[in-house]
Write a structure and sequence with these properties.
By secondary structure, the chain is mainly α. It has three helices and no strands.
Length: 76
């Protein structure tokens, strides 16, 4: 184990960066579906509102959420 740690010491920063990116990937895997869930919920609420005689789908809200999703996808 000591030999392995001594060998990996020269790759310390590479390993730290890899671990940080792995953690970020796990976080993004959780956040992505939550963002899409918000859009799906808003579309459903808009359709139900339109059926009941209301205003319908809030495309401004959906465009804001989709912009956030675009930023999320570009950062992954």
């Amino acid at each position: 184990m000591k030999r392995l740690i001594k060998y990996l010491n020269q790759y310390k920063w590479t390993l730290i960066i890899s671990i940080i990116f792995a953690m970020a990937s796990a976080i993004f895997a959780i956040i992505g579906p939550k963002i899409l869930g918000k859009v799906t919920t808003k579309i459903f609420e808009g359709i139900m509102s339109k059926i009941m005689g209301g205003a319908g789908i809030d495309f401004v809200y959906i465009s804001h959420i989709m912009f956030i999703l675009l930023v999320y996808i570009s950062s992954v």
